[in-house]
Amino acid sequence: MMSGPATGRRKRAVTFRALLACLALIGLDNFPAAAQTMTSDLFRPAPDGFMSPQDSPLRKVGANTDKTGDAADDARLRDKDLPAPSRIGNIPTYGLPAASGASDSGFDSLNRTRKKPKFYPGQAKPKPPAGPGSPAPLTVAPALNGRVRLSIPPSESANKTPLPPAMAGTVTGQPPRKRLKIDDDPFGPVGDYVGSFLVKSALELRGGYETNPGRLPHEIGAPFWVVAPEFLAVSDWERHALVADLRGSFTGYSNSMPAIVDGAVSPSPTNVNRPDFTGHIDGRIDVTQDTHITSEVRLRVATDNPGSPNIQTGLASYPVYTTLGGTFGIDQNFNRLQVSAGGTVDRTVYQYSTLTDGTTSSNDDRNFNQYGGVGRISYELTPGVKPFAEIEGDTRVHDLAIDRNGFARDSNGGYARAGTSFEFSRLLTGEISVGFAERNYVDPRLDRLQGLLTASSLTWTATPLTTAKFYSTTSIDETVVAGVSGVLTHTYTFEVDHDFRRWLTAIGKFTYGTLDYQGDGRNDKTYSYEADLIYKLTRSLWIKGTLRRDILDSNIAGASSASTVVMLGVRLQN
User: Fold this and answer.
1) φ, ψ dihedrals at 452, nearest 5°
2) CA–centroid distance for 223 within its chain
3) Which of 334, 413, 335 is nearest to 370 (CA)?
4) Model pTM?
5) Are 372 and 328 in contact (CB under 8 A)?
6) Backbone angles phi, psi at 507, to 5 degrees
7) Chain center to CA of 99
8) How many CB atoms lie within 10 A of CB 331?
9) Read out DSSP for 419-460?
10) How many helices (H) and strands (E) are present in the chain, helices listed first?
11) Residues 381-430 pLDDT 10s
């Protein structure tokens, strides 16, 4: 039997176990029993019914406690137990974004300037923008009925009508749109593409009255009408070039001119209708960058000018002549130096003249062939100034060695001239040259024909609305007048165009010409004053009015004449 200290220790242990049992009974009465279950993570035990942070006892306790107490712990618990954001609806990003490998200077593949910004010490660097395809940032919406809701901000283009990129103007990664160039001629023809050719065409229909169409000493007028078609085709090739420019007109008069004037045979035909056509087709073959083969085919159909001494008396109508020719040459560039050479051939044929008595008269003595060559050398001093020198020689051989008046008309001639082409800031452009021309005839009775040669084509843009033009030409023309070697003709034209509006243009033109019939002392001077007013309804329809005064002043008695032309018409173009 044991006693003493051992007995005391056993009594104290029994008393301690009894105290723990009492405390356990008291705790079971205040707190309900809860079985432990395994949550979805299989590692954290949770009481039954604790399915979300909002339903947990701690959440409920936190809601009833003081705001300065467990609110921070409650928020941390909510963020910790929220589900991960969903990737449904977000476009995944693969690989590297566009232009990510571009250098820090120049332009990238999206045509954006890449310049690495410089930052001062301590300066905050901006955050790079999110690339295409990056997911939109998640935001936490305010609590609704005690629950946390996740939301994705709506796109900037939500609930908006989509626009094409070209209309939107600003599209991510798209280069900025360039401003369209102002149309210098808003009422000019646009044309149509036919294959690789840009084709422009036009047709003018005019009608009016002329006081002296036959250029008689005494004016006898007649109404008239004009049909004038135009055609232009320009190739759009990477190499080589081909241009076709064809322009023509036909003028018809309603009344016939009298066959007898003041008791004598009229110097003018009874039928003064006349055609006029000028056309050429130019081609260029680019052999190399500096070597080009050039060619041209040209056609001219016309009649003698009214009042010319070449017109026979007693004609029923003007005889029509045709000149068909061509040029074949080569251009070679040596840096800024350009050398050009070519050969020319032309054939001129007159139709038979029809007389008022019904008979015909041959014009074979006026038919001739011309063979020649031309050479030109030029040097480009500056991009706007290019002086040149040109020389030409030719031979004319007539079908008949002797003409109707017994003269041999075969001849050799040519010209030499020097000038420059220039362009000064687009205000003054063109070409001007001066030289000397002469022609020697087989018949010794025909004097040498010679004279000053001038040729120019200048355009001066005085203001955006006013343009001044100057043209001058020189030609040596054949004649059948007895004892006359030929006709040296100079023509000078000055023109001013002014736009009152883009659709309303006024044109003033003055032309002065001299005709020197070398051999018999005859000299004619011509003056022409013209005023035009053009009303441009659309690009395709213009209305044009013309008032012109033509004067022929001759030193031969009875050869002078004058005429006034009034004309109104429309122009259809494409």
Assistant:
1) -70, 140
2) 40
3) 413
4) 0.68
5) no
6) -130, 125
7) 34
8) 18
9) EEEEEETTTEEEEEEEEEEEEEESSTTSPPEEEEEEEEEEEE
10) 4, 27
11) 988 899 999 999 999 999 999 999 999 999 999 999 999 998 877 789 99
